[in-house]
Amino acid sequence: FNAGSFDLGVAGIRIMHDNNHADETALENNHNKTGFFFKGDLFIGIQSSYAFHFDDEMGRYFHEADAGVDYSFFAGRLFTETLFYFNEAGETDSDKYRVVTDSVFKARYYNYSSFSIVISDFISTGMQSFVNICDYSYMLIPSFRFQPANAITLSLQGAYISGTGSQEFNRSAGGEYSIFVRTEIIF
After folding, report:
1. Which one of 10, 40, 64, 121 has the fewest CB atoms closer than 10 angstroms to its CB?
2. Could you write out the three-class secondary structure of 87-129?
3. CA of 172: how far to CAs of 108, 128, 141, in Å?
4. Mean pLDDT over all residues of the chain?
5. Are 110 and 98 a contacting pair, CB within 8 Å?
């Protein structure tokens, strides 16, 4: 779909219901979610999504949304993106964080940014950052990827976690450093 200069690549509407989602931090016994998402291009890549979570009686509900942009340089060899995420169920004070089963994250505001560089047809590298804007804790995730053959990919990914104490991304919960090695073979 193309509207003027905006090229809409993907769009959708999602409606979900989960009647097995029951505990004191969830949206009562019946969790429903509806929302929309889209991704398109207008000189830069633009993406956004919105979700409305609610129980069957509409007694408890919350909103979540994200919006971001991406761009590639040098014929796609350098790709960068940034995304802002809002979670109404999250807290702005890290001392009030609680386990929320309706949401993956504990805080109200986040930023995700990344870049990747294609060095050759077989080698790429990159860096991702995930920042809790409320408590300023973050994760830095460097990566390296090597494809020695068409069906084989070797990946190395690390993570540095900055937070301490009650911050969401804290070293006591996730360690200060981590390394992941992955081998993928496609048959």
Report:
1. 121
2. ECCCECCHHHCCCCCCCCCCECEEEEEEEEEECCCCEEEEEEE
3. 22, 21, 18
4. 80
5. no
Predicted confidence (pLDDT) at residue 30 exceeds the cutoff of 80? no
CA distances from 175 to 38, 104, 156 (A): 35, 19, 18
**Start-to-end Cα distance in the chain:** 35
d(CA 157, CA 124): 12
Residues 26 and 148: their CA atoms lie apart, in Å, by 46
Q: What is the pLDDT of residues 110-156, one digit of tens each?
A: 999 999 999 998 999 999 999 999 999 999 999 999 998 888 999 99
Strand order in the sheet with 6-18: 2-3, 6-18, 31-42, 44-55, 61-73, 78-87, 109-118, 123-132, 138-149, 152-161, 177-185
The pairing of strands 177-185 and 44-55 is unpaired
The structure tokens listed for 171 are 């070293």
Tracing tokens 């796609």 back to the chain, one arrives at 76
The residues near 89 (Cβ < 8 Å, ≥ 6 apart) are 53, 62, 64, 100, 102, 103
